[in-house]
Specification:
alpha/beta; Rossmann fold; seven-stranded parallel β-sheet; globular
Length: 430
């Protein structure tokens, strides 16, 4: 039965390939229009990490279409960035029949859109999107590596994810890594050759808007009913095992023994992904009198003003946006030596690095900063200066625009028009 199903799937894919090669063949009808970039992610929630990036590409003269599974965040992100969007259901987990259907739909959609460049990221969209882009003859294919989910996986799941990463990289012309440690890890694991793994600047997908994320006083403590003057430890991101939430909660219990007035502010939501927290952990967080849970918020900037420091005890990252945002707001960050996370902090200067999985290490680091306000403020000031110098959004996104233009110039398609207008606005996204 399985053999017959594979034969049928193979026949379908062969037919689709032949049909779409015909659709995606040459022609000059589209040359009068700006080059088209398709950006794809698996889940609508991930669209948040594309804010600023899509606008910068559009303002640099590209046509941009965003693809993800349907959801309100897909619609809101496309509207705020001023780009087109297409909803296409994709499963985060392993679902062979759903994946095959999503792949066929991606092939059909790309054959209709006929983009000059595709940028797919996240494991499922990265695999299905880059494969579909290759089959439909997209001239320039980018796989955006934002992290390695396989680092937190074991057994068969890890082997499958490893194969998926290698296949996605093989179908792409370039694998754009958003941190140096991530690039090295991908190379060490043999996911792609060195010539294909690229890092722009010092990393980060979008950089940070240093004007929006800035150390100014706000009323967020009053809004959250946090007493003025009490120590507040902050966290921003998905509430999952991979982000180290159980380690942080256990550490906070120990912190309270030394700092009984302390509060823990969790700016994030309980994700339903494969590493979702159990009901017991959710209840423990929700019922704790000193833990404040905001749920998903559209704009995290005001919440940093309520914190004294940020803790991200993650097990895996690409390059954590939350650490950059905290730095721009003048807050030191405590994060781990995990891949990607260690690139976001200068140890002892802009924050502290600890091993993942050790609540005692979190507790010790937090208490060192809470009990030494002068050191904490000095670290925060250095973090702000470092973030503005190396990770300003205009600088990071301007580098992306220039790199994508260079990829299009190097493409085998000589008829692709390269936009030369709009660069100034692309370097200063709203």
């Amino acid at each position: 039965m399985l053999k017959r199903s594979l034969e049928i799937a193979s026949a379908i894919l062969s037919w689709v390939y032949l049909r779409l090669r015909g659709f995606a063949g040459g022609g000059t009808a589209a040359t009068a229009r700006p080059p088209h970039i398709v950006v794809g992610v698996t889940h609508a929630q991930t669209c948040m990490v594309l804010r600023g990036r899509l606008r910068a590409l559009r303002e640099a003269g590209f046509r941009v279409t965003l693809i993800s599974s349907p959801g309100p965040l897909l619609v809101r992100t496309a509207a705020s960035e001023g780009v087109a969007f297409r909803a296409l259901a994709m499963s985060r987990g392993m679902a062979p029949l759903q994946d095959l259907l999503a792949f066929l739909r991606l092939c059909w959609l790309l054959s209709r859109l006929r983009p000059e460049l595709t940028e797919f990221s996240t494991p499922k969209a990265g695999l299905l999107g880059t494969l579909a882009a290759k089959l439909t003859g997209v001239p320039v294919r980018v796989y955006m590596l934002r992290g390695l989910r396989l680092e937190a996986s074991q057994g068969m799941e890890r082997r499958i994810l490893c194969v998926a990463e290698r296949l996605a990289a093989a179908c792409a012309h370039t694998v754009l890594c958003n941190s140096e440690s991530l690039r090295r890890q991908a190379l060490d694991m043999g996911l792609a050759p060195a010539a294909k793994l690229r890092l722009l600047g010092r990393g980060s997908s979008n950089g940070v808007d240093a004007q929006r994320f800035a150390p100014f006083p706000n009323a967020m403590r009053q809004v959250l009913r946090l007493p003025q003057g009490v120590p507040v430890v902050g966290f921003v991101g998905r509430l999952t095992y991979a982000k180290g939430l159980p380690d942080l909660v256990e550490a906070f219990e120990r912190i309270l023994a030394a700092e009984p007035d302390a509060h823990l502010l969790l700016v994030g939501w309980f994700d339903a992904a494969g590493d979702a927290l159990s009901q017991a952990w959710r209840a423990r967080i929700q019922d704790h009198p000193r833990i404040h849970l905001t749920g998903m918020v559209d704009d995290t900037a005001p919440y940093y003003g309520a914190m004294d420091l940020l803790v991200l005890p993650t097990w895996r990252e690409g390059f954590p946006n939350a650490v950059l945002e905290a730095a721009a707001c003048g807050l030191p960050a405590i994060t781990t030596w995990a891949t990607g996370a260690r690139d976001a902090v200068i140890p002892g200067v802009t924050g502290m690095l600890i091993p993942p999985g050790y609540p005692s290490a979190i507790c010790t680091a937090v208490l060192q900063l809470l009990q030494n306000p002068q050191r904490r403020r000095r670290m925060g000031a250095m973090a702000r200066a470092w973030a503005v110098e190396h990770f300003d959004a205009g600088q990071v996104l301007g580098g992306t625009v220039r790199y994508y233009r260079s990829l299009l110039r190097q493409s085998s398609r000589s008829d692709i028009p390269i936009p030369a207008v709009g660069e100034a606005s692309a370097l200063h996204p709203v």
